[in-house]
Amino acid sequence: MIMAKNKLWCMGLILLFVLPCFAETKEIAFEGEWQKVKSIIPKLPIRAWVEDSNNSLLLEFSSNLGIIDVIVTNSTGNVMYKQSIDTKVTSFTTISLNKDVRQDDIIYITDGNNKIYGYLFNN
């Protein structure tokens, strides 16, 4: 069990440095709070990047948050993309967006109790 935790921490640390190097990406600045996360780092347990090609959304989870919903909406509130992700199974996910994202599209991430959101591109 301890070995598995050490491997997950090492993979997370590697991803932290490697993810931004895969492609031209921009990190999404989230607003909101995520409660009940045990961590010595006072940051959100989720980081996200959108590729400049506007076709992929990269998500990294620094802890087990359970099952979360990732929702992308356009400026009028129409849901363009929705997926549930079990963060106990994976600490990194790539989501292919079928439609090009726009400047004012918003990503929401929730577990039912906590909710964070951010613009796919910094306004």
Strand content: 35-45%
- Percent of residues in helices comes to 10-25%
Distance between the termini: 43 Å
- Rounded average pLDDT: 79
Which class best fits the helix and strand makeup? mainly beta
Whole-number radius of gyration? 14 Å
Biggest sheet statistics: 5 strands, antiparallel
The counted number of beta strands is 9
How do the helices and strands follow one another from N- to C-terminus?
HEEEEEEEEE
Shape: globular
Q: Please report the number of helical segments.
A: 1
Low-confidence stretches: none
Strand order of the biggest β-sheet: 2-9-8-5-6
Characterization of this structure:
The mean pLDDT is 79. This protein has 123 residues and is mainly beta. The radius of gyration is 14 Å and the shape is globular. It contains 1 helix and 9 strands. Helix content is 14%, strand content 39%. It has one helix at 2-18; strands at residues 25-27, 31-33, 46-51, 56-61, 67-73, 79-86, 92-96, 106-110, 115-119. The chain starts with a helix and ends with a strand. A 5-stranded antiparallel beta sheet has the order 2-9-8-5-6, with no helix packed on it.
